[in-house]
């Protein structure tokens, strides 16, 4: 996995959350957290956690 994938998934999660599709947003955020954790990217982890807690 690459960090860029977490960024794309995070952006997609934000869009789905804004449109009210919480199931899709949660699934995307979960995948983004896994990638951010796997790659050790604190920036991506902070970004996706901000979406997950919004």
Describe this structure in words.
The chain has 54 residues and is mainly alpha-helical. The protein has one domain. It has 3 helices and no strands. It has helices spanning 3-18, 22-39, 42-52.
- What is Rg? 10 Å
Helix content estimate: over 70%
Number of domains: 1
What structural category arises from helix and sheet content?
mainly alpha
Main pleated sheet: none
Distance between the termini: 25 Å
SSE blueprint:
Elements lengths: L2 H16 L3 H18 L2 H11 L2
What's this entry about, in short?
The protein has 54 residues and is mainly alpha-helical. It is built from three helices and no strands. The N and C termini lie far apart (25 Å).
Supply the key terms:
mainly alpha, 54 residues
């Amino acid at each position: 996995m690459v960090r860029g994938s977490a960024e794309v998934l995070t952006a997609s999660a934000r869009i789905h959350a804004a449109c009210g599709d919480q199931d899709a947003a949660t699934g995307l955020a979960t995948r983004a957290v896994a990638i951010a954790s796997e790659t050790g990217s604190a920036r991506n982890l902070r970004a996706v956690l901000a979406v997950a807690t919004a």
